Amino acid sequence: GENVEQHPSTLSVQEGDSAVIKCTYSDSASNYFPWYKQELGKGPQLIIDIRSNVGEKKDQRIAVTLNKTAKHFSLHITETQPEDSAVYFCAATISGSARQLTFGSGTQLTVLP
Amino acid sequence: EPEVTQTPSHQVTQMGQEVILRCVPISNHLYFYWYRQILGQKVEFLVSFYNNEISEKSEIFDDQFSVERPDGSNFTLKIRSTKLEDSAMYFCASRETSGANNEQFFGPGTRLTVL
Fold this sequence. Notes:
By secondary structure, chain A is mainly β. In chain A, 0% of the residues lie in helices and 54% in strands. Chain A is built from no helices and eleven strands. In chain A, strands 2, 4, 5, 9, 10 and 11 form a six-stranded mixed beta sheet that branches. In chain A, strands 1-3-8-7-6 form a five-stranded antiparallel beta sheet, with no helix packed on it. Chain B has strands at residues 5-7, 10-13, 19-24, 31-37, 44-50, 53-57, 65-68, 75-79, 88-95, 105-106, 110-114. The N and C termini of chain B lie far apart (37 Å).
């Protein structure tokens, strides 16, 4: 089955700096890669996703890149703000099926004011 | 904006007792999921459900677990005889059937504490 590795486990940045979180996956059949933000006491919320037919996707301060050959994808947050502080999870699955999401282990991002 | 809801938010039970966790998926969604998250660990898949039957289940989802869609709105997870290691946050998620939209929407979770 799919295995998703995520690094780093914790990340502290100064407000305004950029943050990068990296994930690798094992199953070459996976073709949908969402990123979730989980705030304390809440469920994961989708912030951005990417399909394997594109290499990069951007939504305001958030971007995701995908390297299918190397089987890794990354989340980039620019101009970080204190409200970006949360746990971020990457995940992988096969698009269009009932297949479950396989999550990475999470990154605790702390944005220092 | 439509959302997945879950009840209760916190359930405390004694080891060996049965618990039922309830979820109301988004109304036009047809794929349903249960995940769990042990404190400080990653979110783990338990089971997926489509067309009134289980589509996939993980190794965690043993005979002590069952799921049901008793009516047109609720989706439940039952644990027959809880163990201490069942203590976790349980998340329900749902997804549309459209192949173009893969987003799974998660509920706020039920914190299960087994004493």
